[in-house]
Amino acid sequence: MMTISVLDRTAGALSKSEQPDLSLGLLHDQAGHVDHDLLLCRVNDPELWFAESPSDVECAKALCQDCPVQALCLSGALERREPWGVWGGELFLQGVVIPRKRPRGRPRKNEAAA
Ligand code: SF4
């Protein structure tokens, strides 16, 4: 006897109402429950989290590491596909985490040899 199995692609998927809320509103709500001084993007110049300079970006990423809402901040930014900035200790560009911001301008001709 032959058996035909059907893959139910909806099985196990969460409905819209069951999906975790990873909105900025939730992040703000959670951040409201922690000591304001621990949210370093709020007590420092927020421009650092949207900096052009690679060294400033690395500084912002480092400051996020001890943030009490880092995991929520990162997962929300991934979900929202943040177009720009440092979120949850990672640099986002057009919705994708990029490991390291490159300096402006063309690479040096001898960069590979350096
Ligand atoms: S993890 Fe998010 S909330 Fe925390 S300092 Fe970094 S950008 Fe700000």
UniProtKB/TrEMBL annotation:
GO terms for cellular component: cytoplasm
One GO BP annotation of this record: negative regulation of DNA-templated transcription
Location(s), subcellular: Cytoplasm
UniProt GO MF annotations: 4 iron, 4 sulfur cluster binding; dinitrosyl-iron complex binding; DNA binding; metal ion binding; protein-disulfide reductase [NAD(P)H] activity
Annotated [4Fe-4S] cluster binding sites: 41, 64, 67, 73
Job of this protein: Acts as a transcriptional regulator. Probably redox-responsive. The apo- but not holo-form probably binds DNA.
Name this polypeptide is given: Transcriptional regulator WhiB
Gene that this polypeptide is encoded by: whiB
